[in-house]
Structures are given as structure tokens and as C-alpha cells.
Amino acid sequence: MTIPKTAGLVAAPFTPFRANGELDLARIDAYPEFLASQGVIGGFVCGTTGEGPSLTLDERRKVAERWVAAAPRDFRVIVNVGSTCLADCRSLADHAESIGAGGIACLAPYFFHAQGVPGLVNWCHQVAAAAPTTPFFYYHFPAITHFTIRASDFLEAAADRIPTLAGVKFTNEAFDDLSACLACRDGRFDVMFGRDEKLLAGLEAGAVGAVGSTYNFAAPLYQRLIAAWRRGDLQTARATQTTATRLIEAVVASGVCPLGGFKWVMGRMGFDCGPVRPPLWQPTPGQLDLVEAAVAEAGLMPHAMGPVPA
Known about the structure:
The chain is of the alpha/beta class. About 45% of the residues lie in helices and about 10% in strands. The protein has 13 helices and 8 strands. An 8-stranded parallel β-barrel has the order 1-2-3-4-5-6-7-8, surrounded by 8 helices. Strand 4 (about 105), helix 4 (about 115-130) and strand 5 form a beta-alpha-beta unit. Helix 2 (about 55-70) runs parallel beside helix 3 (about 85-100) and helix 4 (about 115-130) packs across helix 6 (about 150-160). The longest helix is centred in the last third of the chain and has 19 residues, at about 235-250. The two termini are about 35 Å apart.
């Protein structure tokens, strides 16, 4: 299959909940258009930021359906179908294909582990086979799964086993492995970098596409970083990366659950996604006051809310 390369920012959207913890699907309807207006080219839904593991299978299907239905033309929706149950992964993959998702992604099983690279290839082969015409991405996130293979070893081993293998969503700091993924099979694969606070380093390693949580509300800031990098203005690119990293650190340093803090920032952008769902914990009003003070003191929200550069 022809593998289109992701060139730009893909947001990992928040899943909107009501105050009682139920899904608030209606809030998704305007979400893709909002992201597109910020220069974001796609959504990676039901992933870590979307609290996918805290959703029921039925909820995951409903969220995916709503995103695909609401997405504007050329806005790519990739659905995370990863789970600890192979049958559930296959069911979600089949559903994603049936609704016309632009891709599926699957984590390594994160309770019982597969037997090394061969075991992971076998797992992913069975998941991908349930969606035989949909591009498949391995979702490499060893900090969460504690499955510490090299993603490039997976790509090399899976290249001839999984016909729909499109690439990897690479959420890791092993830049030698990232470079190996980008070079694998003469640069055949689409490698989306997944660390917002290290986007510049990802660009320097050769990545051209990225997936991230803070692209929901600070995409214009990262667009300026990318624009500076492309024109060779490394000083501006570094300064902009520092500003973005300070935004993340301001939230984390306030002692909140990071996703709860990020959802609050999204609400300050005028796009309320509600609370987080247990086992994550909702920030207290006092913690949110600290987040607001830290973000305001750093002068970061004006950056986040600025226009997308031409």
C-alpha cells in the first residue's frame, strides 16, 4: 500500500465528559473544525490523552464515530484500538474501518507482555488483519506499557508481515531509535513523533509529523517553532520550544493531574472538555488557581491563542 507521510501537527484530543463523568459527545462536533482552524491536520483519538483505557468499548466506538463524522475534509482521524484483550482490539479495529477512519493504532499489550518483538508482531498482525484496508500504526509508548523493545526493530520485523503497516506513533526519547525508524526500509514508514516538549529534537532527527496533547490548545506556538526550523532560524526555534516546554512545566509543577490541568487550559481557550475520569483525579480549585497563576505569569496563553503563521 502507498503510505502517505504525516507532515504537520496531529492533536491527541481530550474526550469530553459531563460533570457526572458521562460522555459528552455533542462537544466533539465542533472540535475537529477548531483544531483545523489552528493548523492541526488530524486527530489521534481514544489514546492516552483521550483517556481511552478508561472508556468502555461502546464508548470508544461512539467517540470514534463522532470524530469521523465531524472531521472536515483532509482532516485525518486515527483511532487508537489498543487494549489488553486481543478480541477487543480486533473489534475496535473492525469498527474503525467500518466508519472510515483514516488509520488505526495499537499499543503493545500493557499488562501481560508479548514475547519480545516476534510476539508483538504477531499481536499487531492479528489486530491489523481485522481492518484489512486501513493503515496500521504501532503505538510505541514504553513509559506507559513498560514494553521496552526498539520500535525500529518492530518495523523491520513487521514490514513483510503486516500488509497495512503504515508506521509508528513514537512516544519516547530514544532518538537513535527514532532515527532508525525514519531510515527503516529506505524511509518507507510514516513516523509520528510524540513528545511535545521535545518537538525540536524530533525535527532535528528527521521527523516531519508529530502527535501531542498540547497541540489541542497551543498549536500556533508549535507552528511558529516548525516555521522557524524550516527557514533555518534555530535561535527562534529553540526559544519557541522553551516557551512550549514552560507551558507544560507550569501545569505539571502546580501539582495537578496533568490531563486535568491540560483540560482546564483547553477550557480557558473556550473549549470546555469537562473533568477527567477516575482513576485520574480532578484538580482542586486551589490547584487550578496555581495553574492559572503560573501560566499567566509565564505569559504563555497569549502564545497559545495567537494566530497560525502564514
